[in-house]
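W.,

You were right to be curious about this one. When I first looked at the sequence I had no strong expectations either way, so I just let the prediction run and decided to look at it fresh. Below is the sequence, 239 residues in total, followed by the output.
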Amino acid sequence: MMHLGHLRPSKSNYASPLHMVPKKEGREFQIYTDQKPLTYAFKQNPDKCSPRQLRYIDFISQYSTDIRHVQGSKNVVADSLSGIELNSITKSPFLNFSELAKSQQNDPEIPKLLQNKSSSFQLALKPCLSTNSDLICDISTGSSRPLVPESFRRLIFEQLHNISHPGIAATAKLISAIYVWPNMKLNIKEWVRCSEPCQLSKVQSHTKAPLGTFSLPDVRFQQIDIDIVGQLPPSDGYM
C-alpha cells in the first residue's frame, strides 16, 4: 500500500490488516463490511473526497465495486482475523479457593463470628464450584460472598483496586459485591489512602500544608531565614 502511494510511512500500522486476493478473469465477487457508510463509497460525489480517499477507492475498484453491508454480530470472518490467538489459558486466577478454605479453618477470628448471633453476617457453608471444598459465605444479600480471612484481604484488595485505581467508595462497592470480612470499609479506606499510584495521579486529593508565618525580629540577625531551592538543571553552563 505504501509503495503505491495509498499510505504514508507514518500510517504503516494500517497496512498489515489489508489482505486482497488477485481477481480472476471473468469472476465477480462482493466485499462485505459491517461499516455501513462504506457501502456508499462508489456512489458519492468524487469532488467531495480527499485525495487519499480517492486513492483508496481506486485501489479497491481494481478488485470489486460491489460493497455490501453485514451486521457486526454476523461478521464472524473479521472477528476471527482480528482476534488474538489464544490456544490455552496462560494465567491462573489470582485467588486459590482451596487455600482460602484452609485459611478459613485456621483463622482465629472466624469462630467468633460464627458464634456471634448479633452479627449482621448470615454465615453458611457453600460448595465451591472450582474446588471440592466448602467455603464459609455470607448469604445476607441473597448471593454467596466468601468470608475472607485476614491473610487474603490485602491480596484481594490489591487485585481489584489495581484494575483502575478507583476511589474509596467505588473500591468498597466493588469488593463488597463479591467478598466480605469485618471492618471491610475501614480497611479499604486506609489502603486506598496509602496507595502510591492513587497519590501520584490524583493531585487534587494531596494534603497541602498551609504557608508558614514568621514574627518580625526586634534586632538584626536575630532570625535568619533561608530559601532552599535545588538542584536546578544547568542551562548553557549556568545555573
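Here's what jumped out at me. The beta strands are 31-33, 67-69, 123-127, 134-138, 145-146. And, maybe more interesting for your project: The first strand starts at residue 31 and ends at 33.

Coffee later to discuss?

I.
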